Amino acid sequence: MRHVGTILGTAIAGMFVMSVWGAFAGAYGIGGGWFAGFAIISIMWYLNHYIGIHNNHGAWVDMALGIGVAGTMRDVFSSGIQVGIDALPTLAVVILGGLAGGYFAVQLEKVNSEG
Amino acid sequence: MTIQNMITTFAGAFIFPFLIRLAWGRLVEDHGPIGGWLAGGFIVGTTWTLTHGVGFIVQTGAWVDMAWAAGVGLFLASAISGDDSSAGFVNAFFAIVGGVLGGFILSNLAMFS
User: Fold this and answer.
1) Which of A63, B7, B18, B105 has its Cα between 20 and 30 A from that of A4?
2) Looking at chain B, which residue has its C-alpha nearest residue A111?
3) B11 interfacial to chain A (CB closer than 8 Å)
């Protein structure tokens, strides 16, 4: 049932982010996009990570992983596999940038905790 | 994707998990769950203005969200801090299943199909 919680939590978060967010940005521009982050991520974080229906024993799996997959797969399901292949350059750079950001954050945490 | 595109895409992807890992937990420690609400706006909302609002993350096909960067970056950060990565991979599998399910449902929405 814990894994069901992860599936439901990420599916719901992914659907909100990958439809409503763009609608807010489309209607109100960059301020709408900022507000969408506040309105959607707040409650989705609360559900998935604070109440904790998203299973998280072991290394941290963020709801963001499911959200990222939902956005890419939305387009693959609606437009076909070619758009997924076309996305690979962006995906590769985003993954490398994300790994570097996580790595350096931990290094700085260590420096800070040493005082 | 040009070299210029790669530079901004990398930078945008770097910043998102970097901010989350360093600031989100502290916000919750200091303010309780309301700190998580603040983080939704001031970490995710504000980073979105950079990555997707002004377009640091350059798209070449199916949508690649800044969430991908947070998903992989936060997992790596946790794993190199000593958390059990084999248990994490099991949970990552189900998070991906949930993401595929959410993406499939969305693809049936009139605005995308």
Assistant:
1) B18
2) B22
3) yes
User: Chain A partners of B3 at a C-beta cutoff of 8 Å?
Assistant: none
CA–CA distance, B14 with A96 (Å, rounded to integer): 8
| Rg of chain A on CA atoms, in Å | 16
Nearest-Cα residue of chain A relative to residue B1: A89
**Residue of B9, B39, B102 lying closest to A97 (CB–CB):** B9
Helix (H) or strand (E) holding B82: none
Residue from A20, A62, A75, A104 whose CB has the most chain B CBs within 10 Å, to mutate: A62
Whole-number pLDDT of residue B113:
73
Given a cut of 90, is residue B79 above it in pLDDT? yes
What is the number of residues in chain A?
115
Instruction: Give B71→chain A minimum CA distance, Å.
Output: 4
pLDDT in tens, A24-46: 999 999 999 999 999 999 999 99
The continuous run of DSSP H or E covering B72 comes out as helix B66-80
Whole-model pTM? 0.96
* Cα gap A71→B48, rounded to integer Å: 14
Give whole-number Cα distances, B112 to A16, A22, B62, B81, B109, in Å.
14, 12, 12, 40, 6
Question: Is A48 in CB contact (< 8 Å) with chain B?
Answer: no
Contacts of residue A47, defined as CB under 8 A and 6 or more positions apart, other chains included, come to A9, A12, A13, A53
Task: Please determine, for the modelled complex, whether the ipTM score is greater than 0.90.
Answer: yes
For residue B98, which of A83, A98, A21, A53 has the smallest C-alpha distance?
Answer: A53
